[in-house]
Write a structure and sequence with these properties.
Distance between the termini: 57 Å
Number of strands: 6
Strand order of the largest sheet: 1-2-3
Oligomer: single chain
Number of domains: 2
Helix content: 40-55%
Shape: elongated
Length: 151
């Protein structure tokens, strides 16, 4: 590892520990040339996951886009930021374990709806209305009837 201060190539690892919920290893190092201490992180490099949109376009999976959509659905609802963060983390973990390189946007949307339905009914209907592109009140009513029928 090259020292960020003097560019010397020899260092010694002082401490290693698990970081980022087990997804990375944090290492404290000391440069053998100048004595500068610095931290590095080691993690598995995964191929970038891409989303196949309904119109056939491909785009890179964007955690922030997913988070924003869920936050909008949960706006002014009794859902904490921690619940949303946990939901997004769980979704990403599940999607990355099931799909190596590409996933259809329909699958992502369905997984979000499945989780939101358990978390908050109103947030579920809000998300579904945008995701399924409800065009009139009858589609809202049918979605609510389906939801009531499940419970």
């Amino acid at each position: 590892m090259r020292c960020p201060k003097c560019s010397h190539m020899e260092d010694k690892v002082l401490d290693s520990r698990v970081a980022r919920n087990g997804d990375a290893t944090r290492r404290r190092r000391i440069c053998m040339g100048c004595g500068y201490r610095f931290t590095t992180y080691e993690e598995v490099v995964r191929p970038k996951l891409r989303v196949i949109k309904t119109d056939g376009r491909h785009e890179e999976f964007d955690r922030n886009k997913l988070m924003t959509g869920i936050e909008r659905a949960c706006e002014k609802r009794p859902v904490s930021a921690g619940d949303i963060e946990s939901l997004v983390d769980t979704l990403i973990e599940e999607i990355e374990s099931e799909y190596e390189r590409e996933v259809a946007s329909e699958i992502v949307g369905q997984k979000v709806m499945d989780r939101l339905e358990k978390l908050d009914d109103v947030a579920f209907v809000r998300f579904a209305s945008v995701y399924r592109r409800f065009r009139d009140v009858n589609q809202f009513v049918n979605a609510i009837k389906d939801m009531i029928g499940k419970s």
